[in-house]
Amino acid sequence: VCEAYVLHRQTFYLAQDFFDRFMLTQEDVEKERLQLIGITALFIASKIEEIYPPKIMELAYVTDGACLEEEILQMELIMLKALNWNLCPETVVSWMKLYIQMASIYDFTNLLVPQFSQETYVQITRLLDLCILDINSLDFKYGVLAAAAFCHFISFDIVQKVSGLTWEDLEGCVNWMAPFVEVMMGYDGVKLKHFAKVSSDDRHNIQTHIDYLSML
Q1: 122-158 tens-digit pLDDT
Q2: Alpha-carbon distances of 86 from 45, 83, 111, 114, 158, rounded to whole Å
Q3: Element (H or E) spanning 22, and its range?
Q4: Rounded to the nearest 10 degrees, how much is the dihedral formed by the CA atoms of 78, 80, 83, 87?
Q5: What is the Cα 102 distance to its own chain's centre?
Q6: Cβ contacts of residue 100 below 8 Å, gap of 6+?
Q7: Domain Cyclin C-terminal spans what residues (predicted)?
Q8: Contact yes or no for 151/170 (Cβ under 8 A)
């Protein structure tokens, strides 16, 4: 859905945060309701993050009739109340962006080179995309998840300086993440997609579709 409507990674991760936090407030949620909760989380996130968010009728359409517009609007209100209107969290991907920017400021890497920066960023976010499908990812704070992912692409000394986290803070997450890294390494390298209405220097920020479930 995110790729179809050219939505940004931050939108996807906001929706993921809303979904997870909402589910933590609920008990005995019926499986049939999960799609409604998910599409509503994306509806809320896209209105916050996107300049031109998809219309509610478009999001209802992609559910193939499973979710009506009225149901999405009703669920939106339920979710907003459950989330206590806390709609601007620092997501995993926003932490990741911060660390990369800090690394560039320190001039530790070649991340200032646009093409390398885009490819590296996409590689790290794809790793995070895969990791958050595992419920155990909820055991770690977003900043720790992002820093642990960064550790698999750059030296720990740099990660420590840009994140302020110690090895003791990160060791558990880095080790937990290692099998996901091995899986990602077995797939083709990054090929940045082109989108008609997206500039080349922003294309790495678009959330693209990969069949991550088949990797697990």
Answers
A1: 888 889 988 998 999 999 999 999 999 999 988 888 8
A2: 12, 6, 33, 34, 32
A3: helix 9-24
A4: 160
A5: 20
A6: 111, 117, 120, 121, 150
A7: 90-212
A8: yes
- Identity at 37, one-letter amino acid code: I
Kindly report the length of the chain.
216
Domains along the sequence of the chain with CATH? 9-82 (1.10.472.10), 92-215 (1.10.472.10)
Write down the H helix ranges in 154-208. 156-163, 167-185
Q: At what angle do helices 114-131 and 142-151 cross, to 10 degrees?
A: 120
* pTM of the full structure: 0.81
- Name the residue type at position 143: G
Q: Do residues 79 and 18 touch, judged by C-beta distance below 8 A?
A: yes
Task: For residue 206, list its beta bridge partners.
Answer: 8
- Taking the CA atoms of 139, 207, 33 and 44 in sequence, report the sign of the dihedral they define: positive
State the residue for tokens 């390298």.
189
